[in-house]
Amino acid sequence: MYRVRPSVGVHLVAGPGAPHVAIVAEELAALGVRRFVIVGIAGSLQPQLRVGSLVLCSKALRDEGTSHHYVKPQPFAYPSPTLTRRLTQAMARSVTTFDLGPTWTTDAPYRETVTEIRRYRDRGILTVEMEASALFSVARLRHCEAAALFVVSDNLDERGWEPRFYDCRPHLHRALDIAIKTLAAEPQR
């Protein structure tokens, strides 16, 4: 955990996945943290989203196991509308182009099938990642706010997988800066 502003800390998650994020969120919530923003990488399911694109998550398809231990069964987990709106405003002020839309959270990245990729792409799901639905569910149970801002790091479609993780680093820094400034600013009442 790194303190970057008087009221903002950054926790670097050592490994991917819903269980790990849930553990970290649980422990931080127990210590009094009330707002969380994932700044991470995600695969693109949409052809217009290329490596480096920023995507603010509007909802997360729950295709992992952790969230089901926190909230009742439903297809999606939702971020905090207030925190998501504040991130949207901060990104617009910084003249940062971004997309707002749903993500597919799965904890089995090597089991993504062409059928699933097509189905979720055709339903308008923008990205695939491993943490958002779990964080949103933990936050809901613990009465915290949570949001997710992703940088596209790879492309996934019927032709296969195009990983380009190192090409997205400058975009991750920009996204992290926006998240820190948003969390540090006093919420509008």
Q: Tally the helices.
A: 5
The CATH architecture would be: 3-Layer(aba) Sandwich
The strands making up the biggest β-sheet line up spatially as: 3-7-6-4-8
> Mind telling me the CATH class?
Alpha Beta
Order of helices and strands: EEHEEEHEHEHEEH
**Mean pLDDT rating:** 91
Tell me the CATH superfamily. Nucleoside phosphorylase domain
Largest sheet: 5 strands, mixed, barrel
Structural class: alpha/beta
Structural domain tally: 1
Radius of gyration from the CA trace? 16 Å
What overall form do the CA principal axes indicate? globular
* Uncertain stretches: none
Q: Topology, please?
A:
Elements: E1 2-5, E2 8-10, H1 18-30, E3 35-44, E4 54-63, E5 76-77, H2 81-93, E6 99-106, H3 114-122, E7 127-129, H4 132-141, E8 145-157, E9 160-163, H5 169-184
Parallel strand pairs: 3-8, 4-6, 6-7
Antiparallel strand pairs: 1-2, 3-7, 4-5, 4-8, 8-9
Helix pairs in contact: 1-4, 2-5
Question: How would you describe this structure to a colleague?
Answer:
By secondary structure, this protein is an alpha/beta fold. The chain has a single domain (2-184), classed as 3-Layer(aba) Sandwich (Rossmann fold). Helices cover 32% and strands 30% of the residues. The longest helix is centred in the last third of the chain and has 16 residues, at 169-184. The two termini are 28 Å apart. 40% of the residues are buried. The model has no long low-confidence stretch (mean pLDDT 91).
Which structural traits does this protein have?
single chain; 189 residues; alpha/beta; five-stranded mixed beta barrel; two-stranded antiparallel sheet; 30% strand; globular
